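#structure-requests
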Amino acid sequence: MPELPEVEALAGYLRERAVGRHVDRFEVAAISALKTYDPGPEATVGRRIVDAGRHGKFLDVVFDGDLHLVVHLARAGWLHYRDAFPSAVPLKPGKGPIAIRVRLDDGSGFDLTEAGTQKSLAVYLVTDPGQVPGVARLGPDVLSIDLPTFTERLRGRRGQVKGVLTDQQVFAGIGNAYSDEILHAARLSPFAITDRLPDDRVAELYEATRQVLGDAVARSMGQRAAELKGEKRSGLKVHARTGLPCPVCGDTVREVSFADSSLQYCPTCQTGGKTLADRRLSRLVR
């Protein structure tokens, strides 16, 4: 799932490539992906793209006249920028992974795609991003707050620290992958309880959050959209590296699996050498 660094980089790429261009055609191939109906897709035609940004993990493409295309890429969505499209033939609904195609006046444009059968890509055309329910519920952007605010919000939601870090109503922008990386950098167990963390450990977690996300943004900015996934994978130390050696201490990276997700961690760096119980296997044993 694209998280804060990748969405920031996609917005940066659109600012570089698409800002100033006018929309020639807005095509919808997956009706389920478009969550709004007024204004409709035709409202974008002829409008100029004036900016691109993000709200947490939501991408925001801004058109003149206060119209916003707000996109949540979910688990399997992505944005593919095309310097030129292979055909002028309109998309056929229900065919292939392309959900939305935006053609621009210079022949370029972008596709919003989604792989797999579980369709969660969400696209909104609104006059105010706050009209998108997910945006309206967002907590503060995690890179925009100071240590006292971070501490207050972290301790204000009692729970396992990984779950609190990824709660978008607490902090906007952190997902499954970067929460694993942040906790590894902070040398914290993903199951540590937020309101039991001493001040020094919260401060270390805050610094790790800023370091991990800041470094990821720096690596991602300037990359083409097609290269961002590979760039993300290249910078990961524990996430999606189960069974590989930890690059810090050499211990084997372990995994805890849940019904529809998993987390990765290093026992030596994060849990005092203790291997955490795999929740999926524990349920089977019982």
